[in-house]
Amino acid sequence: RWLFNHTVCTLYAFCGVLFGLCSLTSLTVLSTVCCLKVCYPAYGRCWDVLSDLYLHPSLINNFFLWARSTSSRKAFYGPEPYGTACCITWKSSSREATLYILALFIFCYLLPCLLILISYSLILWTVRVSHRALRQH
């Protein structure tokens, strides 16, 4: 069972979400920068703007939800079903919690994974085209 109080549970879940977002965002920015450097060398220096555009909305949203009162935070973070750790309350019935989970899924999971997939696909395509061009010469 969870050994600490609800405040520590909320902090633990918040940190898990925050560090997970930072990790996936780092991977997304890294793959996009690699794609820009390999496929579009003239735009390879744009990575600062790219990271600022994507990273800050996710973190600002998470900090905004953290800053709310304790009673509304209970709807977003809580014990896992087995009670040994805390995370996002996936089965919350409030509309705000459902929208938060949906926004996290779309903007902080689906979109980054799609960007990573597109970036590495473009890199592979560029390398393949370059290899064919070298073989013809």
From TrEMBL:
InterPro entries: GPCR_opsins, GPCR_Rhodpsn_7TM. Its main location: membrane. Residues 1-137 form the G-protein coupled receptors family 1 profile domain. The keyword Membrane applies. It comes from the Eukaryota. The keyword Membrane applies. It is a multi-pass membrane protein. The chain crosses the membrane at residues 12-43, 99-127. Keywords: G-protein coupled receptor, Membrane, Receptor, Transducer, Transmembrane, Transmembrane helix. One of its GO terms (molecular function) is G protein-coupled receptor activity. It is found in: Membrane. One of its GO terms (cellular component) is membrane. This is OPN5 protein. It comes from Oreotrochilus melanogaster. The gene is Opn5_0.
